[in-house]
Input
Amino acid sequence: QVQLVESGGGLVQAGDSLRLSCAASGRTFSGYAMGWFRQAPGKEREFVSRIMWSSSPLYADSVKGRFTISRDYAKNTMYLQMNSLKPEDTAVYYCAAGPCSGNGCFLTARYDYWGQGTQVTVSS
Output
């Protein structure tokens, strides 16, 4: 099985930066798509970004130009560099992985494994 553990969340001021990490374990992990999702109180879980070996990174419009996703295959770790944070970025951020391919790797249903989440709070 695949296990994912997020870290790096915290409480910051608007305009600050954070880097989230997702440590993964499990066989065939390098062949999986990996992504970041977030969920704010009272809202549905939404797509943030995903990374695959076979295509360019994908970002939600709300974070494009501010967030950068990366992946270190040797360390089995994925990162999300978040710059210019806004109060609307406040949410629990989840790391996800799955054998996803094609055009649908921004949907929660396409990911089989999830971390417990890390809280990001941005004050104005």
